[in-house]
Design a protein that fits this description.
The protein is of the alpha+beta class. Helix content is 57%, strand content 16%. The protein is built from 4 helices and 4 strands. The strands form 2 sheets. The protein has a two-stranded antiparallel ribbon with strand order 1-2. The protein binds zinc ion. Zinc ion binds next to loops.
Length: 139
């Protein structure tokens, strides 16, 4: 049996590499880089410990046989991560569209709608849930 096949057999039924693990690796790299600028011995040692803990957890996730639990963690991570990412994308779009559009949340389904910038009170129909509600665009 070849080396690759041995690894493949070893990894069978294990979680393997996922987005959350990648994120943990990046965070541990960040901690390691930050540690480069820390001159205090004790603080540096603590940061090193934190880095090892993160790497240990990442390794545990890769080799874990509780695939269901790990993929639930990964889903939770992606939900939070995408939520944060979408928030920043929305702020970026708000600035980009500031002259032509205004962004408002649908009262019913919480979807974010991009509305033409028309001053005053308007009735809006959400294209996602068909719910109708009033918006007031002041500026
Ligand atoms: Zn809606």
């Amino acid at each position: 049996m070849g080396f690759i096949q041995k690894i493949q057999q070893f990894m069978m039924g294990r979680n393997g590499f996922d987005s959350f693990t990648l994120f943990l690796f990046i965070i541990s790299l960040g901690v390691s880089s930050a540690n480069f600028f820390v001159w205090d011995y004790t603080a540096s040692l603590i940061l090193y410990g934190v880095q090892l803990l993160i790497l240990g957890y990442a390794a545990f996730r890769v080799f874990s046989r509780s695939v269901h639990k790990r993929s639930a963690e990964n889903r939770m991570f992606l939900k939070i991560f995408n939520g944060i990412k979408n928030f920043f994308v929305l702020q970026k779009n708000r600035i980009r569209d500031i002259k032509k559009y205004r962004y408002r949340k649908c009262k019913y389904c919480k979807a974010t709608l991009r509305l033409k910038r028309r001053r005053g009170k308007h009735s809006v129909r959400c294209p996602k849930c068909r719910g109708e509600f009033k918006v007031n665009i002041i500026v």
